[in-house]
Amino acid sequence: xxxxxxxTSAILGxxxxxxxxxxxxxxxxxxxxxxxxxxxxxxxxxPTSELEAIxxxxxxxxxxxxxFYLHVHNLPDPEKIPKWRAKKNAAxxxxxxxxxxxxxxxxxxxxxxxxxxxxxxxxxxVVLDSNQTKRSNEQVRLYMAKEGWFxxxxxxxxxxxxxxxFGG
Length: 168
What we know:
Layout: H1 3-20, H2 48-54, H3 68-74, H4 81-101, H5 113-121, H6 130-146
Helix pairs in contact: 3-5
């Protein structure tokens, strides 16, 4: 296999593995992951891009139609992080003791790889919040009134889909 084919195969394999993981597995029971926002406008002169910017909740970012950052956030098990943190801190304490014995400054504690993945690279799941939906409705209505659409009607519909991530 050529080098380009190898890279392509590796990327496709990684995508298949990421899509096989359920991004909702760490969402509390009874909550729902916000997958997308759809704005429907009956008047064609209203710019939907400006209305989308007003929305308070936005779904997780995607890479090639896959919520990559959500998957990265879900990779480490949050129940194991305190154990990893304690192990890493103990090693840092030992190194800092040696450094102070030599007259050097102590080094600060670094985040574990799991903490770094969850906080820096990953993106926490966006859980549907009815209060944020109400605030978005009010903000869109105010925007429409400001733009001269005084009798604008704004309403929302939430569709909950139970089952697998890709339909079902």
